Amino acid sequence: GAGERDTYLWRVRTVEMNEQAEVRRQYRAQFTDFLNPDGGHGSYMDGIRKMIVEKKRRVKVDLADLRNYDASHDTSLARTLLDRPTELLPALQDALADIVRMEEPKYLEPLDEVYASLSGSFGFQRVSPRELMSTMLSKLVNLEGIVTRASLVRPKVQRSVHYCNEIKQFHTREYRDVTSLTGLPTGSVYPTRDEAGNLLVTEYGLCKYRDSQTISIQEMPENSPPGLLPRSIDVILEDDLVDSCKPGDRVSIVGIYKAAPSKGSGSMSGVFRTLLVASSVSSLGKETQQLRLTARDTRNIKRISQREDCFDLLAQSLAPSIFGHDFIKKAMVLLLLGGIEKNLKNGTHLRGDINLLMVGDPGVAKSQMLRSVMNIAPLSISTTGRGSSGVGLTAAVTSDKDTGERRLEAGAMVLADRGVVCIDEFDKMGENDRVAIHEVMEQQTVTISKAGIHTSLNARCSVVAAANPIMGTYDHNSTITKNISLPASLLSRFDLLFIVLDQMTARHDRDLSEHVLRMHRYRRPGDDGTSAGLFNERRQEDDDEMADEEEDAAVPVFTRYNRLLHGPRTSSFQDLLHTEFLKLFIAYAKRRNPTLTQEASEQIVNNYVEMRQDATNKTIPITVRALETMIRLATAHAKLKLHTEVTQEDVEIAFDLMQYALYAKSKDKYDESDRQRKRQRTGGRSALDIDRETLGSLPDK
Questions:
Q1: How many angstroms separate the Cα of 581 from the Cα of each of 199, 318, 323, 560?
Q2: Which of 235, 231, 239, 244 lies closest to 214, judged by CA?
Q3: Burial 215-245, CB ≥16 within 10 A → b, else e
Q4: H-helix or E-strand containing 648?
Q5: CA atoms of 566 and 320, how far apart (whole Å)
Q6: What is the pLDDT of residue 516?
Q7: How many CB atoms are closer than 10 A to CB 18?
Q8: Nearest by Cα to 103 from 150, 151, 40
Q9: Rounded to whole angstroms, what are the CA distances from 353 to 274, 413, 493, 642?
Q10: What confidence tens digit (pLDDT) does each residue in 173-209 have?
Q11: Is the pTM of this model over 0.90?
């Protein structure tokens, strides 16, 4: 009958549980041997003692060490741990708890656990949210992505204690859910009566809780396939892992991929929601990820920085496919390097990021310039004027669909903290949305006061924007302010404003069309079976000492010369730096902190006064912000040269760049007489002599 069947099932279950306990005991013994091989010595024992001193509950275990142990003891702990974590992780944590109790008997309460956070190589089980499939269920995976939202930290009950007044006894009950490693999930309802029907009172002070938080991880925007929405997955963080990351962080999470019953009544459909139960969270900083320098890379970087034409070389290599625009490219290089941010003791924040705006005719490669900056910058986010609202750029308050509470979602500028924000079609932006950018561009914070949330988020980013004039094309007859429909308060926040004109001179057009046609004729070697590869000539490096070292260890410095791509090899052919090397150079130089010298400070003051006195037709109003701009540009140039001090030469180059940005419209004012005045001031040629091609044809003198 039914009673016999129940008894049989109970017996089978008991036998299974006994077998599981036996297996767990075996693994526990193996893990204890692995963690403590020679009686209290070894790296893991040191780690456990350090953990006890710091009063923590988590020990790092490296999979590489586990694989070495497997090789010498003929076991397969590492592989089994990746495939069946629900069986082996509890055994590992038991082994850790045993060792901790042995070292320090009073450190752990009876029900406390010690957690293991795993690191190392995960092979095929290192995935992004898009690659999580049903074959990965209940396996250990290493997930990489960007945190998009985080819920509040809530306590979750582990064990409840109830007191019965009638029989003067305590009852305890344990609770498990999807996240627990052992046993079946229990219900979450507190018992109100015991077996005899007596009333129970819950003793909240004796109950045991643990912290719990849910975050959403979305795949990295640069890795998601074009045209598809980025995927995201919920991750559950518990105990000491809560609040270990905030929205906008790039993280790598190790955890068990699990299926949970879907909420609501439609749970009979057989479709489950999936989540990840995290066992370790580590941050993937964009800066730290980029800088893995070999000694040879460092030597190359220093060699390039000592070249006379270092600034020109970097500017040309930033966007070699764009013809001309030399000054804008130079400004972009300085923007990527940035000045030095200062936080004074009295709470004043001086920004170090450089902002840049390009206004000009259609078809002069403004958007291509933004693209090239996005390729080189370690962290960049791109938006367009029409496609983004003010709160989408800064931060929005939304309500959580699960709990119904209000929470904060970070916008583009907060996500691009310490990076670059590229805004195209800046002029098409709504008036209200543009106001949201004002605070970010000078104070570099986003302040929110909505729905009972008052907070300030960091948004320390450079802004690069491109816009068209009011009439679509630039009207040479009207003034600059009438051409640009942006308020002066916003324009003064841009350090450099470039007017990019479509020049109509025969020589310029001929050079430009030759350049564009070369781009179109170029084919990759081996493409379509053609012999494009025959034109590849290996560029001879001028340093012989480096030729004997192996090629693969370091990033190549120069791109290979290609006749179709770079034109006939004449004296005008310039070296171009390899994109990867350019990224390395900028990341390396960005970490420098040059200081201002007395001579440079005096030079900056003189230049500033001169700019204020010269009341001709300028592109942006000259305010104190222009003074700070000059300091930032000079500092960025000193970083480029890897100097420890900002010299007069750096100030000169910064001033030249600002002059070009200010007088670009009235180019005839920036003619020979202006150069003559500068030559007298600097005693010789200007550091950045304006060449004629850039400015169009000036009258011969």
A1: 74, 11, 21, 13
A2: 235
A3: bbbbbeeeebeeeeebebbbbbbbeebbebb
A4: helix 648-662
A5: 9
A6: 82
A7: 10
A8: 40
A9: 41, 13, 11, 18
A10: 888 877 777 767 777 777 777 777 788 888 888 888 8
A11: no
